[in-house]
Amino acid sequence: MNLKGRNFLTLKDFTPEEITYLLDLSADLKEKKKKGIPVDHYKGKNVALIFEKDSTRTRCAFEVAAHDMGMGTTYLGPTGSQIGKKESIEDTARVLGRMFDGIEYRGFGQELVEELAKYAGVPVWNGLTNEYHPTQMLADMLTIRENFGTLKGLKLVYMGDARYNMGNSLMIACSKLGLDFVACTTEKYFPAADLVETCRGYAAESGATITLTEDVKEGTKDADVIYTDVWVSMGEPDEVWEERIRELTPYKVTKEVMANAKESAIFLHCLPAFHDLKTKIGKEMGERFGITDMEVTDEVFESPQSKVFDEAENRMHTIKAVMAATLETTDGTELA
Looking at the annotation, which residues are catalytic? Predict the structure, then answer.
């Protein structure tokens, strides 16, 4: 499997075999990390990390992964570059492509990372856009595989707002890898019809199914994985909180939801999660609406079924695999 020089923008661009290869490489690199076996075969290389949206897990995962591999990193935060302000994406791409061996982009529209990749001349990796979050998908699938030993035939239920990057990307990943995908929410929050149709094509090849339902009891019945995300995405105005809380509260992940799933079911969340009032926004929403949590109860979040911190750790191992798979080593070593 040779992915050298490839961009990593959306899993739509990758075959099930290529995605599985990246998961296998992630597992191998994770094992090496745990055993203290160095994989620093990329000394002398440098990567640029463009963050138009702030991040904890994505930034730390890229920086630690790059450091482990012997690479240098340059972080360009929301105010740290002229990208899109005084300099076009096209020009920025051509400048950074002359200085760096790879570029990560986390920001807004998918068209921005696509344009960056078109002109950079080096691999570009999508750290999150409004539409897709492919590095998160690898971490999710690795976590699921670690818990069940397989992916094919499992049932994953996504609850909440399934219209954006997480709902979209989970539907793509599941349909390509043979997991049954359920979007459990009101019709208003279903994924776009054209993407659903595309994923049904993937599902026909993998043996997966795609279900859109408003029925929590039916949707979550016998699920292997219950997944949710924050109800208001990064960049959305505060005014939408009231609407989302009103419309999505019936799709909160509770102990009753988990009890309706299989006994062996796990809970996943890409984080950060509003499961208590220990954050500034959580406290504010608690005071405004008289609530103690939002998309998931603290009881579920802190339960043994919750694998969210394994999932968060796996961001680093899977991002390392993406960089390793798409960049040439400097010493000729092949990692896999």
Answer: 106, 133, 136, 229, 270, 315
